[in-house]
């Protein structure tokens, strides 16, 4: 990594973060508001009927799922918008003519997108403390899953932003793919609660492994072994990095 | 198809041996995915410290050439070295030497001028140097606007912000793609002065322009591009001398009512007041016909008060060079 232009990485990271802090209220307010709504709807309404899942109070059980939902949405939208905007406004030329390669650009953009997503997820955790008593069994693993997931999905968002040719395309993937995957990934229930066939289908969903590992960090219970969850997120990060390296090497949708 | 007379081919001038080429372009070609052939076989050495102007009509390939050197466009053939570094394999070293001011203005709208410049400096791997950035902003008359958001600036100011960004890491080579497009006359003068200052600082400058007087005013050498081919590269003065038509103006003692019949076969124009004759001649021709003309005038008893010559503008030179051959127009 000795050849990496670290000041370049820092410049991109800072540049991206400054956009977040310029609109810090909007950036935080809407995730917090939707979290409150989820607690009211899922926690109060459904939680009234479902007392507990696998020994955990339902209100607390959905906290990791909510954080995951937020972190996936925020990672993908931050990273995809972060790189799409310069493409749209034409300022992308600066990244293409300066001595930064795929490593610097990825570290800068994805690092900033993941940082924002993690910050927002932590704010949601704080918010949830007002509603339910949440005890975190493995706080370090919880943070590790948070950071790894944010990284993986920021990388995915980055690829979507590189690929997108219009704002419609930019929005369609998160809407059509990410949100369904999260809802079907056991954010609000345990995969065991599904009929056997659907449980099998759910196991094909990569998000299930993330939610499961994350929930394990909270409560010590998991749908799949924790090691499998770690491997899943590791594979995702590696695959995305390879794809990004290929995009920059060939200039696909970047250079004529 | 070339409009050029045979013997003039692009190539290094005789001065090359004594100067170092900071940019060496060899046999560069580009065909876009759409099939457009934007450049074919362009070779050019650009010397350290010189100002070279690229002239050519819309779509000639000027921006494509610049974009390849800077790393925005991947060539389909040929090589470019900047400061000895190949732009494909040693791109980090090559790009550190380059600053680009693109043809299209593109700026982050909600960023202040000074932060925009600091950001670019960071991208180039340079540590902060606010004293230098202040100097750059002052030289571009942007210091007062340093805390303004870029979207609040006029078009001319935005272009100067782009120049400030391009200079933020002290490049040795600066590309200016139509730096004075959309800039008023006073500002254009100012821009020329900025370029002049950069020249004195030893920065090599490659600019494109549609304003031919601009090339004539600023450039040490002029390259003419059309249909993706570099038709010629010549020192500005040589080009003027070689291709420039001159106009000989003959002021008369007595006004003439009309051009005498004996002189009507010459390309003479009589001024409205009848007090002067204009004679256009080609400096390249073996005979300019001036001696004969003056002799004929004397024989006709027309007394000459004064003579003067005027060199035609580069615009006219340019039009001669890129004029399409007739048959192509009618075909
Ligand atoms: N991204 C692109 N995709 C396809 N064709 C392109 C692209 N960019 C330029 N071209 C084509 O390549 C040719 C050269 O264009 P270029 O922009 O280099 O010309 P130019 O000399 O800079 O013109 P101008 O003076 O109008 O700026 C034109 O025919 C143009 O249509
Ligand atoms: Mg152009």
UniProtKB/TrEMBL annotation, chain A:
Species this chain originates from: Paracoccus lichenicola
Domain ABC transmembrane type-2: from-to ranges: 22-251
PANTHER family registered for this protein in UniProt: INNER MEMBRANE TRANSPORT PERMEASE YADH-RELATED (PTHR43332), TRANSPORT PERMEASE PROTEIN (PTHR43332:SF1)
GO cellular component labels: ATP-binding cassette (ABC) transporter complex
Protein family per UniProt: Belongs to the ABC-2 integral membrane protein family.
Predominant location category: membrane
Transmembrane portions of the chain: 28-48, 55-72, 92-110, 117-137, 143-164, 176-198, 218-248
Endpoints of the signal sequence: none
Name assigned to this protein: Transport permease protein
Family matches, as InterPro entries: ABC-2_transport_permease, ABC2_TM, ABC2_TM_bact-type, ABC_2_transport
NCBIfam families linked: PRK15066.1
Tree of life domain: Bacteria
Membrane topology summary: Multi-pass membrane protein
Keyword Cell membrane: yes
Keywords: Cell membrane, Membrane, Transmembrane, Transmembrane helix, Transport
Cellular localization per UniProt: Cell inner membrane; Membrane
Keyword Transport: yes
One Gene Ontology molecular-function label: ABC-type transporter activity
